[in-house]
Amino acid sequence: VIFGLVVLQAVLLGGREYRLDEIWRLHAAIGRGPGETMGYIYQDVNPPLYPVLASLWLPLTGHSEAATHHVSALILLLTLALYARFVIDTFDTPTATFAVALLGLLPVFFFYTHDAGPYTLYMLAWTGTTFTFARWLRTRRLFYALLYVTIGIIGVYTQFMTVFVIVKQIVYLQVEERF
After folding, report:
1. CB atoms < 10 A from the CB of 155, how many?
2. What is d(CA 8, CA 106) in angstroms, rounded to the nearest whole number?
3. Can you say how many angstroms the Cα of residue 122 is from the centroid of all Cα atoms in its chain?
4. CB 16 within 8 A of CB 65
5. Tally of helices (H runs) and strands (E runs) in the chain
6. What does the pLDDT average to over 53-66?
7. How far apart are CA 3 and CA 66, in angstroms?
8. Pair 129, 155: CB distance under 8 Å
9. In Å, how far are 71, 144, 165 from 136, measured between CA atoms?
């Protein structure tokens, strides 16, 4: 299901030209190394992780529309796989199959996960924090706590709104512990 969704996205959205916001984001990374990209991004209000990562993979993949959009598709594969694992842990495999198909076909998800931008990284970080938080609640293992903190930091450097996801989880933990 996951692979089929990514292939469907690649076929339907593969030839799409850059939008203006994609051009601005990639402009920060094209022809600059990670350090120069960080300096350029500090002039803006956006978190630096996506442009810094783009400055690393653009020399490898090129900066054509297809190449940069397919990097997002690879991150999408990880996100959907992690989401499926979370749903399997919570429910069962048939429910996970249905949930992944439903999520993968949502128009907003479908469009923004095939974009040369940080949207797939947001989704991966938010899914990752939720997955590791749930695993930590169930097992109370230090490994999942450290993984949660690491993914949370990556999430904040990808999108500042990750703080709200983390606050929601902390509030849940407080309610869970008290009641």
Report:
1. 25
2. 13
3. 4
4. yes
5. 10, 0
6. 86
7. 18
8. yes
9. 30, 5, 16
